[in-house]
Amino acid sequence: MPVTTGDRAVLDAARAVLLRDPRASMSAVAREARMGVGGLYRRYANKQELFRAVCDDNLRRYIALGEAALSDGEDPWAALGEFLGHVVDDGVHQLTPCLAGTVVVDDDLAALGEQANAVTDRILRAARGSGMMRPDVSRADLTLLVEQIGSLDLGSPERTAALRRRYLSLILDGLRAGAASRRLPGPPPEDDELSARWVI
Amino acid sequence: MPVTTGDRAVLDAARAVLLRDPRASMSAVAREARMGVGGLYRRYANKQELFRAVCDDNLRRYIALGEAALSDGEDPWAALGEFLGHVVDDGVHQLTPCLAGTVVVDDDLAALGEQANAVTDRILRAARGSGMMRPDVSRADLTLLVEQIGSLDLGSPERTAALRRRYLSLILDGLRAGAASRRLPGPPPEDDELSARWVI
């Protein structure tokens, strides 16, 4: 569904508010969007509907970041690093723990989720194919690693962003094939384990 | 202050409840400790007093884990890995984000905090001295890395524990001197940035 300018402003406001406070109310979103609560409810009948739209938007942002990384023509290992850097900066995976379990995953969202998985697989396959990446890391591992980085919150937003980049850099070093001192313990997470969080 | 058996049971209950829900109430703690709310209030006059005791206990657990790692006689790099593993398993740093800002840091807590720093420094200095560890990682970096791992929560407690160990293993690989592809970006976090979280 195309997003109008008005929708865009509301989605950006909802996104900003949720990134600061996962339990944010509709009135907090309306305040951030500089509109009345009534106006917000005319666009989205309830919190669930708004959160669904944020979720949809979030998946589209992720897919766009992935496609940009694939079309950059950089070497695949650098492309993976760039991609994860943008995902961390954008807060895409920081929203997952807020939104999971609050939104009904309908067919459209499920299709976007599959697109997101597909684009990640292409980036991951290329990075693995370059020989630079350790083989024992799954797609779901990447998701959880970026979520962990997204949990960090210290001082100002700028300092938080810089520290997240710092730990991404450390994790990328750990993801290199040459860094692997032994096989990572425990089975890697499966997609099913991640999607189970979305069951309401 | 010596901890009585009764205190121990209450502290363990409070710890378990807070690890599940950082916003837990006194009555949730009383339920977990299988005691009446009145009984809990006779021990701790208010939530702040109970949280202070949890904080004190948490720092003592951390110091004990650190001292055990130092006395193990293992090689210093393995000792660092073992220590962080126990810290992750115990949830020590998972409690920090819940407790920071809710407890007044009195002189006794501050002294325990300094002891915790001192024991970490000894472990860190030894690991650096072994040549196995990259030099551009600070004590506060370790704290924040373990906190990030502690944010992970997926499926059962057992699965969560296994996945936390998985990501600690990856991060330890990234912490090796040989893994460093470049200096980590951004200045490392300072102790002051971490202690600022405790200002009420």
From TrEMBL, chains A, B:
Residues 181-200 are annotated as: Disordered. It comes from the Bacteria. InterPro entries: Homeodomain-like_sf, HTH-type_TetR-like_transc_reg, HTH_TetR, Tet_transcr_reg_TetR-rel_C_sf, TetR_SbtR-like_C. Gene3D superfamilies: Tetracycline Repressor, domain 2. Residues 25-44 bind DNA. Residues 4-62 form the HTH tetR-type domain. Pfam families: TetR_C_43, TetR_N. The keyword Transcription applies. Keywords: DNA-binding, Transcription, Transcription regulation. PANTHER family: HTH-TYPE TRANSCRIPTIONAL REGULATOR BETI, HTH-TYPE TRANSCRIPTIONAL REGULATOR RUTR. This is TetR/AcrR family transcriptional regulator. It comes from Nocardioides eburneus.
